[in-house]
Amino acid sequence: xxxxxxxxxxxxxxxxxxxxxxxxxxxxxxxxxxxxxxxxxxxxxxxxxxxxxxxxxxxxxxxxxxxxxxxxxxxxxxxxxxxxxxxxxxxxxxxxxxxxxxxxxxxxxxxxxxxxxxxxxxxxxxxxxxxxxxxxxxxxxxxxxxxxxxxxxxxxxxxxxxxxxxxxxxxxxxxxxxxxxxxxxxxxxxxxxxxxxxxxxxxxxxxxxxxxxxxxxxxxxxxxxxxxxxxxxxxxxxxxxxxxxxxxxxxxxxxxxxxxxxxxxxxxxxxxxxxxxxxxxxxxxxxxxxxxxxxxxxxxxxxxxxxxxxxxxxxxxxxxxxxxxxxxxxxxxxxxxxxxxxxxx
Length: 345
Fold this sequence. Notes:
Blueprint lengths: L5 E3 L4 H11 L5 E5 L5 E6 H9 L19 E2 L5 H10 L4 E5 L5 E6 L10 E6 L19 E2 L2 E2 H11 L4 E6 L3 H7 L10 E4 L20 E6 L2 E3 L3 H10 L4 E11 L3 E6 L2 E7 L2 E14 L14 H10 L4 E5 L4 E3 L3 H10 L4
Parallel strand pairs: 1-2, 4-5, 7-10, 7-12, 10-11, 14-18
Antiparallel strand pairs: 2-3, 5-6, 8-9, 12-17, 13-19, 14-17, 15-16
């Protein structure tokens, strides 16, 4: 928590002015707390100016001039993400998060982050990238560069933008390169790497992640290039109370011929050059933490295996359509497409 935004309500107006001046960049607002560290008000540079114009002295305590009707969210609020979304619509910049006794436990900076998603992210990066050889003979595919930055770093940066604080990467092929890459914190977040004992498929490696903090887990391929809205993805998952949500992309098949509908030898109808629209797996999944019990330990296991298992058990598996861009960098053509796309972002 950034304590530079906190000030005791007994401090003077001139003390507040000095502290606001020291903020320099970012939202120019202070959160006033009483002698028991409970939040009691807010103070902006505008509030100070209006107080002085109204005749208040600079040596008065800020308690006399602070704004008492302030916006906040409680830390145990069930709809925290929805609350932050609403605050963003109100153009609020800093949102204090309070406990039940009104102590400030966190401050969400909506200038720095889109929101603060309560989920753990697990990026699968153990594959060999065979289709991209020779580029991947000495460099794992997620560490190949697009626009001067590793593919995986685009995904890490976007997760951090949405306030994800717990990010894990499962590795296997050329694992030491990932471990070196993530030695230092990434934009203030320490990305953890976990070595698979063997190739464990597109979701099996999640079982070697030894520490999870939230009840919702995001699992994704690390070599994707996408601007999926993780907040919408999360809210859709929660509002549907799903066990698993699968992000999807549209896939269209154009048949260049007339297609017959048959009944035995008889032609019942003719479709001239039909177009079929499908939803294809995009390689990003949200799952309830309890679903992890369905995944076997130390066995090759794909996300599609988990989907089929949950469907068989009548669990709720839903889809979330991606409306932005999405590229699976699995071939030289897709790699070149991503390098061209990044020039226009």
